[in-house]
Write a structure and sequence with these properties.
Tetracycline Repressor, domain 2; mainly alpha; homotetramer; Arc Repressor Mutant, subunit A; DNA-binding; 2 domains
DNA sequence: GTTTAAGCGAGACGGTACGTCAAGTCTTTGG
DNA sequence: CCAAAGACTTGACGTACCGTCTCGCTTAAAC
């Protein structure tokens, strides 16, 4: 699938300029006041160029976050399950709210309303990390740290849930101690003998 | 604070019409395409009347949800803690996503970006229910069903978190069985002996 | 026509306050920005009270000018025809543009577009003065200063015309010398023998 | 000042459509009820496009009249001074009130209140014609038909004044006979020996 | 002296148009 | 043929006043 002669070739410098402008404008005015027009003007780029390559404002920001975020498909495995889980949770927190002005929250908000964006957000940012998370839990099962029949779906809900809970309620992200408490509770729930 | 002697008073019929129009338009086109203009037109009301009494589109929807939602300050207490908790969780779910077209999700999304709306949303919809929830947990502590030193903040995060988690990831709300599993895990975590 | 039983009891103090507020607001912001709402607020009066007694903004200003203007049905007759005519012209100038911020010009403008107001303006301000003017010319005819067959309609057009001409072209009203020149020309035209 | 290399250029078709819509709407409802919104709707044009190129409703109408009006910088000179002057006066009358519904009067009215519009109106419509008029009078002086010291400013006031006088008083424009009478009087005034 | 109906202030109401903003599309010109 | 520039249509925004309409209160006339 290499481009043929005279094939349309995307300008990498424009792409960079657009992402940079987006990042700056988010930092200055917040995601809420981010407009395509402003991005185009700041990046020195025609609006057409933006619309040619991205379907929406959110998609640009998504690409920005994706580039910034750390990558790594294999889960960390230090042997300390709780610590590894905390690192994984922290990674998601850092994507969504590394700083007050960062666009992660705005992107989450927009994705609630825009199914297409929501899908892209999950596919590119969320699900790979969930998958890594589950891998780590399965490794724990293999190591005998968790029962083989532990309900990993419930574990996901319980561990990632608080992040979104606090996001939704403007409560500020859980700090390190609270993360530890959450993880400790969940691990206890998974290992404690079930009633009956 | 009764109105002064010469105060012209608010028209209850307009208020009703505005809320009704809002509800209809959400049902027809979704919260996303809801506009003040359309509400005014549908309600047969001047835009000014809307702006006089509500600061934003979200505020109208908030009032709509608030009126629709069930009220009740005292927590249910049937003796069955898990069942009572499930009822309380279900109540919040029903406010946010009673139906696909209901505006709860849109309102949540908007409140993420609009601090004023977020504050109002928490004050009027969320916090009263959290308070009720905590009351029920305290009653359980008094009844010896939960340890006196159980961390209720963590319990809140663990129980409400999944709702927002699933909201954020477009996963659909937990069904009754999943709710039960979540609650069972959390109760186990709260009652299981702590490590160390 | 004394008021019958149950006659409307108009509040003279409100009327005064409205005219005073109108005058002030014209002075401050110009006729253009004059609004009924502002008049009502400044006068400490309900809008209803204004609409009860005046059909339009212009009608209020007309009443204001009418009260301010000098009255006098009999024309001045000092024997000096040119001087008397100049006094009569000056009187009209003083009604329309006593000062830069005065509402006379605005009223003229509005009356061009509002037939009802135009009619009222002519009846109450213009025509009485035209009638007086014609009387003076007729006195001049009787005194032999003007030919008996002088065309008084043309004289009116020629003498009052320049006022409106200059108004329309934002040229500033004719000063005393220019008025004299205009009058001298017209009197010459009226007395000069017609071409045969 | 030709447009830069990458300049998108003004749409002539939009401009035409806007002027046409303006003309139609004036004919149908009169200048008074002319709104930018209606023009945009009728012309199938965005309001922004109108605001981009014209500062006000009046400016559009001015451009409309300017396009419609006859052009011609050199004054007519048939040798018959009175007839030439009448033609020049008639030209101004035809611009302002060619028909009952024409927007000329409204434009005059608005220009009385809007200095910017007034300036534009004079520059584009009035002053060129005044200049032509003065040229013709100077030609008459050269031809010995008028004294070299005739006061042309006074002549202007006396000849154009009646037009605005009658406009202001809703009297209807002078017909051909009255125009002749006015011109005859003024020429007599200019040629008659001065008193003293 | 009461009664009582009008005028009154206040201001909410349904509307119309305003002038602005940003969206997404289209057109022109240049590299 | 991509990209920049920016003009275009569209549609919603929030505001300003319009002229109308209830409200209670005040007040002068009629009883």
């Amino acid at each position: 699938m290499s481009p043929g002669p005279n094939a349309a070739r995307r300008s990498e410098s424009s792409r960079k300029a657009i992402l940079a402008a987006t990042e700056e404008l988010c930092r200055e005015n917040g995601y809420r006041k981010l407009t395509i027009e402003a991005i185009a003007a700041r990046a020195g780029v025609g609006k057409t160029t933006i619309y040619r390559w991205w379907p929406s404002r959110g998609a640009i920001v998504l690409e920005l976050l994706d580039e910034t975020a750390t990558v790594g498909t294999a889960p960390p495995n230090t042997g300390d399950l709780a610590a590894d889980l905390r690192a994984l949770l922290q990674e998601v927190i850092d994507i969504i709210v590394p700083a007050d002005t960062s666009p992660g929250v705005g992107l989450m908000a927009e994705s609630l309303q825009d199914p297409e964006l929501g899908r892209a957000l999950r596919e590119r940012l969320i699900e790979p990390r969930i998958e890594t998370f589950k891998q780590r839990l399965r490794q724990a099962q293999d190591a005998g740290q968790l029962p083989a029949d532990a309900d990993l779906e419930v574990a996901l809900d319980l561990l990632y849930g608080p992040i979104y809970h606090r996001l939704a309620l403007h409560l500020g992200m859980p700090d390190s101690d609270h993360l530890d408490a959450l993880i400790a509770h969940v691990l206890r729930a998974l290992t404690a003998p079930k009633a009956g």
